[in-house]
Protein: Putative aldouronate transport system substrate-binding protein
Amino acid sequence: MKKRFAAILLVFILILTACSDQTEKNESDSEPSGQDQNGQINIQFGAAIDPNMEQVGKLEKKTGETLENNRWTKLFSEKNGVTTQYKLMAPQADYTQKLKLSIASGDLPDIFVVSDKADLKQLAEGGAIQEMGPIYDQYASPLLKSIIEAETKKVFDQVTYGGKIYGIPAKMPSTNGYNHLWIREDWLQKLGLKRPKTMDDVYNIAVAFAKQDPDGNGKADTFGLGLHKDFLNGMKGIFWGYKAYPEFWYKNDSGQIVFGSVQPEMKKPLELLAKMYSEGLVDHEFGSKDEAKMLESVVAGKTGMIYAPHWTAYSVEKTMENDPNCKWIVVPLPTDGSDPIQIPLSNSADGAYVVNKDFKHPEKLVEMLNTYVDALFGENADFNKYWSDGDIDSVWAMSPIHTLDPSLDLKGHQDIKKALANNTTDQLTGVAKGFYKTMQDGVWGMSMMFGPKDTPFAFVDQTYPDQVIWSEFEGAPTPTMATNWSSMSELLNTEFTAMVQGKKNLDSDFDKMVQNWNNLGGKNVLEEVNAQAINK
Structure:
C-alpha cells in the first residue's frame, strides 16, 4: 500500500513539474520580447506599412524577400543582434486606428511608430512609453544626429512633453511639403502659349486649355486646371502665389502666431478658383472627387495643368501610355507679381518611434537607426542595395524603422545636374549614383523628379532654404484642438468649397466663416498655441 501511495505521489509530482515547465514555456512564448538561443533579441514592431502594396509583392517575386525577412532585417540581425517580428502592421490610416485600440487595451508592440500627435501625448503622459532623450544622446551616432537635427532641433517639439523627449522622429525631407505647378508643354506649344510666370498667366492658360481644343479631337472635353475636393492641402501652390498659407501656422506682422486658412489673403486665390469654376475651366464635380480621381483625367489626357507634389511624376507619366507625344514639365510657382514666392514648410517626419515601457532594451531603437542611416548615407554606404532594386524604389521603406537625410532628394538632383553638365556621371556616388542608375534604367518618374531642368527639384534648388517659412507650431494638439478641431476643419472645408462653387459670397461669407470658426474654438486655439510658444 505504501509503495503504491509513493508511486502515485511520484507521478503527481512529475505531472506538477511538467505543468509548471509548460506554464513557464507558454509565458515565455507570450513575452513581447526576449533573447533567443542564438543571443538575438526578438523585437515586436508596429509599423505603418501596407503589406499588400505592389512594391512588396514585386520584391518578393524578384528576390524572395518578405517584410519580415529581407536585406534590412538581415542587416539588423547581423549588426544589432535583432530578430524582426511585427505585432502591428497596416497602411497608415488603418494603422492609426489599430494603434488606438492597442493603446486602449494596453497591448502594445516593443517599438512602434506613432503618427497621431494626440496618441503620442496620451502614451507619454500615461506612462506607457519610455523617455528617450537621454538614450538618444548616449547612443545616437554623429551621422544619425546630423540627419535627425538637420533642419533644427524643432523636430523634437512634436515628441516633447513636460520637458522630456519621448520618441525619435522618423525624419523625412521637408521638401516633401513643396507643391508644384505641372503643365503640358506640348499643349502650350500647340496653342502658341508661353510658360506662366504670374497668376494671370495661369488663368489665361487655363482658358486656352479648356476652350481651344488642345488635344485636337474637335470636342470641348478638356479642363484648364485639375481641381479636387482636398484642394486646400493638395493644391497649396496656387494659394502661395498670393501669399496665402492654408493649414499653416506662421507669425503675422505683429509677431502673433496665426492660422493661415482664416487670413484675408485667402480671398484672392479662392476668387480665382471661383472664376475658373464659373467659366467651366475646372471639373464641376470636383467637390466629390479626391486627388486620385482627378489624376484619372490627367492620365486620360483631359487636363493640362495641376498643382501637386513631386511624386505626382509617377501618375503623370502614365499619360504617355495614351499619348506618346505628351510632355509634362514643372515650372517655378507663379505669383501675383509682387515679392518672390515664399514656401511654407513644416519640419517633416513620418511620425516618431517610441519604446514600450516594459521593453528592456530601448537602446536597440537608436542602434538600429544608426545602422539604417549608415547603410544609406554613411562613408561605406551601399545606397543602391538599400534604397531600391531596379524599378522597385521603395526598398528603403521595407524596414521596421526608417529615417532619411532631409537633403537627399535635393542633393541627388544637384549632383546629377552637375555631373551631366561636366560629363562625369560615371563618377557619381551615394544618393545621386542610385538615382541616376534608376533614371538610366528607364524609370521616367525619377527623371521627371530629379532631372536637371523643368523638374520639381530644379524649383526646390532655386528656393530652398532661403525662401522657406518654417511652421511656428508643430506640437501636440492643444486642449481645444483635441475636442473641437475636427468640426472646425469641417466648417472651413465646407465653406471654401461652397465659395469656389459660387454658393457663398467671397467677402461677406468669408468673414462670417471666420467668426463662426472663432466661435467654434478658433479664438481659444490661437490663445493656446501662442501660450505654448511663450512657455517653451
